[in-house]
Amino acid sequence: MVNGSDYKEIRFSVTDITCFNCALRVKRALATLRNVEGVEVIPDFERNMATAIIKVKGSLERREIEEVIEEASMETPHHEYKVIWD
Question: How many domains does the chain have?
């Protein structure tokens, strides 16, 4: 969990990112989370992964991030996005 009144940055990887549409889907999903003020998703198509960086003001549980990524994965039948905590 990330706490505090200042902005915090949370970084993690997301698997099965194979195209820009995947990266955009993940970015949009993360932007829906409460207390998220900014989202950056940096794809690495050679490894079929992306680095996600979210700026949070307040608190956010890892579980919430994992759930929203799982929901985004369910929206497309060809991908199974998973969070990898660095």
Answer: 1
User: Measuring CA to CA, which residue among 42, 40, 50, 44 is closest to residue 10?
Assistant: 40
Predicted pLDDT at 5:
54
pLDDT tens for residues 31-83?
Answer: 999 999 999 999 999 999 999 999 999 999 999 999 999 999 998 888 899 99
> What CA–CA distance (Å, rounded) separates 33 from 7?
15
User: Quick check: is 2 in a domain?
Assistant: no
Domain hosting residue 42, numbered range:
7-84
Q: Any idea how long the chain is?
A: 86
pLDDT at position 86 is 83
Q: CATH number, domain at 60?
A: 3.30.70.100
Assess contact for 58 and 37: CB atoms under 8 A.
Answer: no
CA 45 to chain centre: 16
